[in-house]
């Protein structure tokens, strides 16, 4: 279970104050007592998705599915500074990304550690760059 503290929720609220969809997601995370996977599963069902895995596995799989986008270098520094505004806006331009899930996915990535989350992709890129 990925736990989001009330202080973290307050930080994200201050960043996303003008985003009603993100605020709805943060409200739900708060209602779920900070259980990020539980909140994400509820949001997914609301968005018409049918998760067929355990909560923790499902959120992890969704985040990994979008790893190439989330780990783009132009947004990495922002994420490393616990700011999700730019990436949030970027995800919303993607027609296949379920917008209501942007907030929990990005919080999940931050909780995993951006560099840890992006490491498999970085390893592939460095292998390509070095001609391996």
In short:
This protein is mainly alpha-helical and 132 residues long.
Verbal overview:
The chain is 69% helix and 0% strand. It is built from 9 helices and no strands.
Class inferred from helices and paired strands: mainly alpha
Largest sheet: none
Q: Which percent range describes the beta-strand content?
A: under 5%
As a percent range, the share of helical residues equals: 55-70%
Radius of gyration in whole Å, from Cα? 15 Å
Poorly predicted ranges: none
What's the β-strand tally?
0
Distance between the termini: 37 Å
Number of domains: 1
SSE string: HHHHHHHHH
Shape: globular
Helix tally? 9
Mean pLDDT: 88
Topology:
Layout: H1 6-15, H2 20-31, H3 36-46, H4 55-65, H5 67-70, H6 73-80, H7 85-92, H8 102-112, H9 114-129
Sum up the structure in keywords.
mainly alpha, 132 residues, 69% helix
């Amino acid at each position: 279970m990925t736990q989001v503290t009330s202080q973290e929720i307050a930080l994200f609220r201050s960043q996303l104050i003008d985003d009603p969809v993100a605020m709805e997601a943060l409200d739900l995370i708060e209602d779920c007592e900070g259980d990020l996977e539980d909140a994400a599963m509820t949001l997914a069902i609301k968005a018409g998705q049918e998760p067929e895995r355990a909560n923790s596995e499902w959120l992890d799989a969704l985040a990994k599915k979008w790893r190439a986008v989330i780990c783009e270098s132009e947004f990495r520094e922002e994420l490393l500074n616990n700011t999700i505004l730019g990436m949030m806006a970027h995800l919303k331009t993607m027609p296949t990304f379920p917008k209501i899930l942007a907030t929990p996915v990005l919080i999940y990535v931050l909780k995993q550690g951006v560099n840890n989350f992006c490491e498999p992709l970085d390893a592939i890129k460095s292998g390509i760059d070095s001609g391996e």
